[in-house]
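Reader question, answered in our methods column.
A reader sent in the components of a multi-part assembly and asked whether the whole thing could be modeled at once rather than chain by chain. We filled in our standard form and ran it. Here is what they sent:
COMPLEX SIZE: two components
ENTRIES:
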Amino acid sequence: MSGAWTIYRRELAGLFFSPLAWVLLCIALAFNGFFFVLSVKGFGGDVLQSMSFLLGGSYTFWMLVVLLPPLLTMRMFSEEARTGVLEFLLTAPVSDFAVVLGKLLAATTLLAVLWSSAFLYGLALAALGTPPDWAPLVSGVCGATLVSALFCSVGLAISALCNTPLLAAFFATIANAAILSLPFVDALLALPPGSPLRVALGHANVITQFQASFVVGALDTKHVLFFVVWTGFFSFVATRVLEARRWW
Amino acid sequence: MITVRDLTRRFGPHTAIEGLSFHLERGEVVGFLGPNGAGKSTTMRILSGYLPATSGSAEVAGFDVLRNSLEVRRRIGYLPESVPLYAEHRVEEMLEFQGRLHGLSRSERRARIPRVLERAGIADRSRAIIGALSRGQRQRVGIAVALLPDPEVLILDEPTSGLDPIQRLEMRKLLVELGREHTVLLSSHILPEIEAVCPRVIILSKGSIAADGTQDELVRKLGGGARLRLEALVGPDVATAVRLLKALPGVVEVRDGGRLGIHHVFELPCAQDLREDVGALAHAKRWAIRELSWQRPSLEQLFARIALDLPDDPPSTVSPSTASRAEESPASASRTTLVQLDVSAPLSTSQPAPAAAAAQGKIVYNLNPFDMGASRDLSKPKPIDGPAASPKEDA
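And here is the structure of the entire assembly that came back:
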């Protein structure tokens, strides 16, 4: 795994070298701050509720979660394949999975930095004499990071499939939105209660999985595993796509 | 060190390489030669573990490139044609990254990075951003990156493409140095480079090996066109001259090229340089020699012949000036090749060939050594008031 760590370090440096990451961070932080202030006002000064609104309870959060990972991961394979750097990486003495893992961790770290900005609000409130409830805050940030990892892994798999970053970002956004919309398939198809598909769709509901655990401040292993397993699955898909590229 | 057996790689319906087999001993420096699309890069990519083969096997340092890919990758330094580097990093950062990928400790990296930078001739640009470097400098960084893990095998795909002549010469010097310490498989379109750097050459054509051997072996085996040309005043008994020439050891055939003015032309297809023997015979028989030359095809000519699918035995007659130029330098040989391939009929006064004459454009012969190089076309009558001071080129 030292290879994955090496690639993680380089990718993270690469992300912070690129202006895109900084622009995205700035926009997302401004967005978050704006909605935090609005939600504090909207909830009548209930900071805890505002924070849970900010981390998983609002559409703005899910919008960021759908949009940001594809923008971060779009270049990771498609651009490198175009410039030839992928050839360098895939002939280095590291496994393909280590390459995927390093890139996934780097993109997730950047988003974790973004979500951790919630701690700043907490610290500011604590400094003002109203310490927040740290448990839901910490679990919310952890959950947001796990959700980000899931969508980053989807973005990586699609970036490995595409030859142009923009195309990769476009398809990854659609894929993320589709994953989030899975529960609505149930309503669309008017599935009878108890049908296996309905049960399966219920289990695949990312928003419910997230809100049932992380928003309320409880780290349920079941929900953590849900995100870890699906992230692992899409990372595996990305690895296989990367291997399949060698045959193209 | 590298063993390739029946290697085949297909991209859909297109077959990039088919049934490739060769072996490289430790410390060998081998040049991979071939026209575009011959399969050089595909073979190198398979050896580097980037591409899998459709069938066949390849081993590097005893490890199968497919089954033990990571072991192979630890032992090779691979420089693809595109010189893939992270443009946003500094040179030394790129090398640090490569060192970490190969599991080098911090002390090893600190010791090796300045060394390989020095070796690649890019030490003064170690803090430069890669994206700001020139093509030649990037190429050098690519070499330094490939050299950093001190690999047993170096696979360099067109390491000099895009370089200016000075950079190319410097790179050639570096490659010669690298060849002393590593097993090197090098591909290039620049034939003088291969001639200068690689004792052994593998020529690929349409995905298969067209030739494999040392340069001398290739020229000997495929040469097919090595010949000695004699223009001499042998007197009326040409048949005796032919018989005497044929009796010389090493001479298989003597072609009578007919008369050129007062001289007679003979061509002797022979793999070895027999000028000493023929010269001695001419001296013994008091033949006045105007030209005695031996020409064998250069690697470049062989390459062109294989690439263009031309017959092994090129047209027999080479103009004297062409032959002498061909021996001057490999660079000029490329021009020579074109000239030689274009000429399709022998040059002879006894059997005039209009097509050859047209291709040749002019036939100028210097007859009198005392008139300061005065020349005239023998196919035309001698002008009464013809110029005598400077060579005249009648069309």
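What stands out: Chain A touches chain B at residues 2-3, 6-7, 9-10, 13-14, 17-18, 83-88, 90-95, 246-248 (CB under 8 Å). DSSP finds twelve helices and no strands in chain A.
Send us your own complexes using the same form.
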